[in-house]
Amino acid sequence: MSIPKAKQYILDFEQLGFGMFIHWGLYSQLGAGEWVYKLHKMNMEEYRRLKDSFTAEGFDAEKIALCAKNAGCKYIVLTTRHHEGFSLYDTCGLNDFDAPHSPAGRDLVREFVDACHRHDIVPFFYHTTLDWYNKDFEDNFDKYLEYLRASVEILCRNYGKIGGLWFDGNWSKPDADWKEKELYATIRKYQPEAIIVNNTVLDL
Questions:
Q1: Among 56, 71, 98, 156, which one has the highest count of C-beta atoms within 10 angstroms of its own C-beta?
Q2: Which residues contact 35 (CB under 8 A, 6 or more apart)?
């Protein structure tokens, strides 16, 4: 019996070896981790106001890429949107809770991808599936999933070839139909060789 051979893009990913994972978002202003909203029991209106002072002056994609390269990293995973719901990229009208609509006025994901490409680093995108900001996550889950797919489509369509996507949050609704088939089809339409990781933390 022959042993199935992994597709080439999977073999290529395995050869990348060492990578870097970066968390960056509104919480970075507080010098705290990405769970500060929950751990400190903040209300969303209070947390949302962090956008008004978000300048991202400490975000230097060039330094990030060079740091990774000097450390021997072959890829970097950046939190394009964490559970707080704030996006580091231009959401193209889905909402204005993103870096381009903050005082930063910048698409940090674009800067990240461009810096990675300049230094021969493979860019990967972390993207939450859970969302504390978007009310549809609790009130109209099917509508929320449409928003999630549209958000991911922007990332897959607008930034050139990426290494893959890392999802996290399905554990928040363990009994829900997350419609992964539709989500993954959206990715494959634009990024047929993307590695897809879904951190469900659910037993199979």
A1: 98
A2: 83
Q: How many residues does the chain have?
A: 204
Residue 79: both structure tokens together: 């939190």
Query: Which parts of the chain are beta strand (E)?
Result: 19-22, 75-81, 122-128, 164-168, 195-199
- H/E stretch holding 138: helix 136-139
Residue 26 lies in a domain: no
Alpha-carbon distance 45 to 141, whole Å? 21
Q: How far is CA 44 from CA 20, 37, 57, 135, in A?
A: 30, 8, 24, 11
pTM for this model (two decimals): 0.93
CATH number of the domain at 189, please.
Answer: 3.20.20.80
